[in-house]
Protein: HIT domain-containing protein
Organism: Angustibacter luteus
Amino acid sequence: MSTDQRPHDPQCPFCRIVAGEIPADVVAQDDQAIAFRDLDPQAPLHVLVVPRAHYPDVATLAVGDPEALVAVARLAATVAADENGGQFRLVFNSGAQAQQSVFHVHGHVLGGRDLTWPPG
């Protein structure tokens, strides 16, 4: 999908980060996804990976642009390899009840300590 055809929401803070309108501590990016540090980290490694296109949740992204979902997972693995020896948990919260607070799909790359199960 070309950049001018990607879904975009001008009110979405993650779309605004992708566009460079809001600063973020970007740790990795490619032409389909961008990874930046979470402002409220829950682990020593806590990076958000978002597709450059706006989709509200992971299920919508999987249907609308499965290649972008693969790109998000690939970039998450790259971040974990660079920052934590490749060990990580990748979490997608989908919906308010699941604690999703920004409705632009994003994966949380968590690591840097022992992660317990169940997660909460």
About this structure: The chain has one domain: 3-111. The helical segments are 13-18, 58-64, 66-84. The chain has three helices and five strands.
